[in-house]
Amino acid sequence: MTDAFTLPSIAVLGAGSMGGAVLRGVAASALATDGIVATNRSRAKADELASVPSVTSLALDDEPDANVRAASKAGIVLVGVKPAMVPDLLREIGPHLRPGTIVVSLAAGVTLATFEEILGADVAVFRSMPNTPALVGKAVTGLAAGSRASEDDARVIRRLFETVGTVIELPEHQIDALSTISGSGPAYVFLLVEELTKAAVAKGFAEADARVMVEQTFAGATALLAATGEDPAELRRRVTSPEGTTERAVAVLQEARLSDVFARATDAALARAKELAAGA
């Protein structure tokens, strides 16, 4: 990848929390030299993005044809509307897409087959699964290519999502499983922070101090993991002195069979993803 690389014009249809996060990352990267057009239902939502550099933010309440207007001029179209709304949106914009346009799904549970069936043979499509740390440029994005996508198409879309973090390319059948790990994963981490903070408060610390201790411990531990490249089990062993306090605490956690807990949790998330894909 050279410094001369730029992205084609981009439309983000349904620029909510995830679409908006990706939009902000791309805008900050300065790679979208041909501009970004975002659409939202309400003027209030559109106004939230109006100040982002290089972004034109449209409201469907003001311009009912805003999705068509945005998509018809774009080289890349990100579809971020709710999953149930995707088929109707694709039927609306499909006849107006330019040759060579790449369409990328941000919608959970909507298959590549659905996109390809509605949009036709001339459109390359991708299915993506970013996570909420995209808001701070630390996302993990799963990316699956449709049957009509070329290697050049994949290079462009990978670069787009790299503006908000790390990209993992994988076959579509693994997207739902990825969503149970990196997609839902931030919630698991926040739950652990929440519960450890409660434990600190129960031991007499003020809530503000408890939050600092716990949140900075998580931030520091993950930074150490990233900086050293060590296996997490090895880093855990280095903290756990024989017959010390940490060893006693870790033994309690291991007795809770956390491996089983996480297996059951991710299995439950995967089952729900399959239900959503089936329209349940």
Automatic annotation (TrEMBL):
Substrates-to-products reaction catalysed: L-proline + NAD(+) = (S)-1-pyrroline-5-carboxylate + NADH + 2 H(+); L-proline + NADP(+) = (S)-1-pyrroline-5-carboxylate + NADPH + 2 H(+)
Native source species: Microbacterium invictum
Positions of transmembrane segments: none
Name of the featured protein: Pyrroline-5-carboxylate reductase
Residues covered by the Pyrroline-5-carboxylate reductase dimerisation domain: 172-276
Origin superkingdom: Bacteria
Entry similarity comment: Belongs to the pyrroline-5-carboxylate reductase family.
Single GO term (MF): pyrroline-5-carboxylate reductase activity
